[in-house]
Automatic annotation (TrEMBL):
Chain ranges of the ABC transmembrane type-1 domain: 84-299
Organism classification: Bacteria, Pseudomonadati, Pseudomonadota, Alphaproteobacteria, Hyphomicrobiales
Keywords: Cell membrane, Membrane, Transmembrane, Transmembrane helix, Transport
CDD domains: TM_PBP2 (cd06261)
Regions crossing the membrane: 32-54, 87-109, 121-141, 170-195, 216-241, 280-300
GO annotations of cellular component type: plasma membrane
Annotated protein name in UniProt: Sugar ABC transporter permease
Species this protein is from: Ferranicluibacter rubi
Length: 308
């Protein structure tokens, strides 16, 4: 009698999941100091600032809690109100014109023009300068004594007037000109990188179908560049909230308090007026503004990927 052959069971597959936690251990160990630095210094410093914003700290921090008194004084101060209004004006126009000019320059660069590298370097060069240098340069350019106004009047237009830094109603627009000159080149490069990632077949198909170029940009290319636009918006918005150097270099907050911004308010109260509690309250409000920007961006950027 023959014994039927039995099929041997396949060997059990070894689980490799525990080993995944031990991969790249050198890189993980090397990142520990950076993580501790971020947690202790940045997170700890942020919590420390928020905590002391509820105190009556003057020259030195002290645990003398006064509740929301610092925030009530902050929002009752005309200087803070003016700084918020100025930041809103500067921020709205900076976002609009930075994106518009940057995208238009990138679209022109994407046409494979001659001397593209030269033009790209020229547009990006101002971003390599510090905001203090940019502010001083544009202070000279906009000075009515020897700037644009003086040059045009010397050509015969004696009634021409262009002195935005000396007009309380226009001073923030003078600062905006300097900011656009410096930051538009970076926006152009980000947009150009996004345009270069668009498949060339899309342009060929649109030409065959007779679709105008502006419709292709508006309804096809720009929606495909959504991640680039979101990242650019976050970069521009974070720069708007902390704007300080340009204002100090061009106007020092003047004329009067016409060009005050929140960052300058914080600096003046913490280091000149020696009112740490008020400075901490103002900086906490700036932190809240940054969080309002970062949290939606993180949700759009990472939440969508997780759902996908």
């Amino acid at each position: 009698m023959t014994v039927p052959a039995t099929t041997a069971a396949p060997p059990a597959r070894k689980s490799t999941r525990p080993n995944q936690y031990f991969r790249n251990m050198s890189a993980k160990i090397a990142s520990i100091p950076m993580i501790l630095t971020a947690v202790v210094i940045f997170a700890g410093g942020t919590l420390w600032t928020v905590l002391y914003s509820f105190t009556n700290s003057r020259l030195l921090p002290r645990m003398s809690f006064v509740g929301l008194d610092q925030y009530e004084r902050l929002w009752a101060a005309p200087r803070w109100t003016v700084s918020i209004i100025n930041l809103g004006i500067y921020g709205i126009f900076s976002l609009i014109f930075s994106l518009l000019i940057g995208f238009l320059l990138a679209a022109l660069m994407d046409q494979k023009i001659r001397f593209e590298n030269t033009f790209r370097t020229i547009f990006l060069y101002p971003f390599a300068l510090s905001f203090i240098v940019t502010g001083l340069v544009w202070q000279w350019i906009l000075n009515p004594e020897f700037g644009i106004q003086s040059v045009i009047r010397s050509l015969g237009w004696t009634s021409f007037r262009f002195d935005p830094l000396y007009d309380p109603a226009l001073v923030m627009y003078g600062i905006l000109i300097a900011a656009l000159w410096q930051g538009t080149g970076l926006v152009m490069c980000l947009m150009l990188a996004g345009l270069r990632g668009i498949d060339g077949e899309i342009w060929k198909a649109s030409r065959i179908d007779g679709i105008p170029a502006w419709k292709t940009y508006l309804f096809i290319v720009i929606p495909m560049m959504r991640p680039v636009f979101i990242t650019t918006l976050v970069i521009i918005a974070s720069g708007i909230v902390k704007v300080y150097d340009l204002v100090v270099a061009q106007t020092s907050g003047g004329p009067g308090i016409a060009s005050e911004v929140p960052a300058k308010y914080v600096y003046d109260y913490m280091f000149q007026a020696q009112n740490l509690g008020q400075g901490f309250a103002a900086s906490t409000m700036m932190l809240l503004a940054v969080a309002i920007i970062i949290i939606p961006w993180a949700y759009l950027e990472f939440g969508g990927r997780k759902r996908g």
